[in-house]
Amino acid sequence: MFISFIIQHTEVQINCKGLNAFRNARRVVIKLGTSTITKSTGEIDHVQLKNIVDQVAKLRAKDYQVVIVSSGAIAAGVESLGLKARPAAIPELQAAASVGQGLLLHEYATLFSEHGLKVGQVLLTQHDIVHRQQYLNSRNALKTLLKLGIVPIINENDATAVDEIKFGDNDTLAALVANLVNADILILLSDIEGLYTCDPRFGGDACLIPEVKDITSELEDLAGSVGSEFGSGGMATKVQAARIAIFACVGMVITNGRRPNVLVDIMDGKRIGTFFIPRKKKLSGRKLWIAFGKSTAGSITVDDGAVNALIASGKSLLPAGVVASEGEFQEGDAVNIKDMRGRIFGKGITNYSSDEVDRIKGLKTSEAMEKYPESMNNEEIIHRDCLVILR
């Protein structure tokens, strides 16, 4: 099996479970990929941007609250500066983003004003998501904008954040924003229609996958890293975004942003693209932050017995189940939890540093406390209240 990135205008009705997600939705986050609002030359497609804004205005008229996570700042800067292509050097990317961000926001403000709507710019960085206080501040600011009837226009702060330009993607940002504002639906608009059973470019019968209930390791293996010339994301980032959305109880759609009336049709419950069904039970705000807001500093590998205890029995991670650690981390850092095959299935806040984990790994708690009494301040390496199972 493989995933392809082609366009197909398939329409079927969502099943009852999926339809209810749209029928009851009131708050929507829409991610506009670079390919959705730019031409093949990399210039902003002003006609397409107006088309998107007109559709958002229709949603607002139906009493939906809408948040937009918009790519295109660098592309707008490239156009304004008269560059022939997207720069490769970081300083030039920052310069293009700095020029383009203001131009893009001005165009949004002008287009929305034609519908009597106001916009507010919000530039986020990893710092705003990783640090708890900034996380809460960002959430309060966004919810206040929505309460005032303003359409937030969100992007990463590309002009100053080097990591965001080199490695960031607006798919993941949009999913984190959906969690921040407690959205009901996340829509990723790009130049792809959704997930397919195989890649038709290499033969075989490619069928659109209309619904996904769970993000499995097999599904992640299918996702490639292909992105457009002027964008930074690909299918892999969209699958990661779907994982975040599912755990946050947010339904997510991946589809082609240039399909006529795409946003209105989606919110009317028509099956367009691939719909990721949200979980029934949402993780607590703290556990969602641990899982997707706090960056990881390393990883801990555990044996099969510990995997079963953590997943099936909801236990804490004890020293006896630990096989190895990777990276350098300190008490209070977030670490990934891997099984013996190297697959990440959990994440948590560790009570011990990587050096201490290496000393006590494989020992029963009583043995570890007897052998290293000065280090054993907690029985658990990771307490179950600070641990999230991702599978």
UniProtKB/TrEMBL annotation:
Residue ranges occupied by any PUA domain in the UniProt entry: 298-377
Q: Does the keyword Protein biosynthesis apply?
A: no
Q: Name one GO molecular function term.
A: ATP binding
Biological or metabolic pathway of the protein? Amino-acid biosynthesis; L-proline biosynthesis; L-glutamate 5-semialdehyde from L-glutamate: step 1/2
Name the source's superkingdom: Bacteria
Q: Which reaction does it catalyse?
A: L-glutamate + ATP = L-glutamyl 5-phosphate + ADP
What enzyme class is recorded for this protein? transferase
Signal sequence, start to end: none
Protein name per Swiss-Prot or TrEMBL: Glutamate 5-kinase
User: Which E.C. number(s) belong to this protein?
Assistant: 2.7.2.11
Matching HAMAP family, A to Z? ProB (MF_00456)
According to the UniProt record, one GO cellular component term is: cytosol
Q: Does Ligase count among this protein's keywords?
A: no
Q: Quick one: where is this thing mainly located? A: cytoplasm
Q: Which UniProt keywords apply?
A: Amino-acid biosynthesis, ATP-binding, Cytoplasm, Kinase, Nucleotide-binding, Proline biosynthesis, Transferase
- Species name for this entry? Candidatus Aquicultor secundus
Enumerate the residues binding ATP.
31, 190-191, 232-238
Please tell me where substrate binds in this chain. 71, 158, 170
| Any GO BP | L-proline biosynthetic process
Q: What are the top taxonomic ranks of the organism?
A: Bacteria, Bacillati, Actinomycetota, Candidatus Aquicultoria, Candidatus Aquicultorales
Localization, UniProt: Cytoplasm
